[in-house]
Specification:
heterodimer, A: 190 residues, mainly alpha, Ferritin, 8 helices, elongated, B: 94 residues, 2 helices, 54% helix
Chain lengths: 190, 94
């Protein structure tokens, strides 16, 4: 089960309204390499995990990704506070505003809705862990692209935190892969 | 249009302290999932976890619960503003 904690994992600060930046950042909310996709991918891969280290890692990283989704949602919402009609129109965020107001929604930067086809579980832990390591790398480079495009140092501070977590998760999945491979090797000699 | 809120300085500082310690707890626990026998990490995690409990108790006594499992005094304080995405975090992470 899950319990909500009324705090962010990392503070979200913005310098001022910036709908253009919000429009690019939304992809880490509901895009192909975003936090929703990451969380749902890992949480549904747990059932076929044969060893406890893998069950724990998938559960805890899947949970942390939900906290990251909350952070990205907060960045989006804050970047729209105080934005003018002209800024929203200029950013091309007017269709988003019509459908969702200032709330974040599960879309990528083009406004395409989230799709379960972004993610996979094959019911085989090794195959799934390879996908997870690739997913962390894709999320990392997405944050790097966002940091390159953003001129807001406060937003970048939060994006850098999120980027760093992708590196740590990649590391943990790599260790889980190694432990699982060792477990499979050992099994042969019983 | 919603506006962003500031917490009183003392509350914000305690919240930052909790966020920092909680992050360390998240990170060490994730590490321990793949290194369950690492005694140094276990010791660090134990100390951080104890510190998080103490700080959380202190915060919740003063400002209300972080979770619906926490206790409230005269009214149900869990609903109180601001919610995490509404705080401006003006103090920054010190």
């Amino acid at each position: 089960m899950w319990v909500y904690e009324k705090k962010l994992e990392y503070p979200v600060r913005v310098t001022g309204p910036d709908p253009k930046l919000a429009k690019t950042i939304i992809t880490q909310y509901g895009g192909p390499d975003g936090e929703l996709a990451a969380s749902l991918r890992y949480l549904t891969q747990r059932y076929a995990a044969p060893i406890n280290e893998a069950k724990a890692t998938l559960t805890d990283i899947g949970t942390e990704e939900l906290a990251h989704m909350e952070i990205v949602g907060a960045i989006f919402w804050k970047l729209l506070q105080g934005a003018t009609k002209e800024q929203i129109m200029e950013a091309g965020l007017d269709p988003h505003y019509v459908d969702h107001g200032c709330n974040p929604f599960y879309v990528n930067g083009f406004g395409d809705s989230w799709d379960a086809k972004y993610i996979q579980t094959k019911g085989d832990i090794l195959v799934d862990l390879y996908e997870d390591m690739a997913a962390e790398q894709k999320a990392r480079i997405t944050y790097e692209h966002l940091i390159q495009l953003s001129d807001d140092p406060l937003v970048n501070d939060t994006l850098k935190f999120l980027r760093e977590r992708e590196v740590v998760h990649f590391q943990r999945f790599g260790e889980t892969l190694r432990i699982t491979q060792e477990w499979k090797e050992r099994k042969k000699f019983y | 249009m919603n506006t962003l809120n500031n917490y009183p300085v003392a509350q914000e500082q305690l919240l930052y302290q909790i966020m920092k310690v909680e992050f360390a707890v998240i990170d060490t626990s994730l590490y321990l999932n793949t290194h369950p026998d690492d005694q140094v990490a276990l010791m660090n995690h134990r100390a951080l976890s104890q510190r998080l409990s103490l700080l959380t108790d202190q915060y919740e006594r003063l400002y209300g619960p972080f979770t619906p499992q926490g206790q409230s005094r005269y009214c149900w304080e869990f609903v109180n503003s601001p919610w995490p995405w509404e705080i401006s975090y003006q103090g920054g992470m010190k």
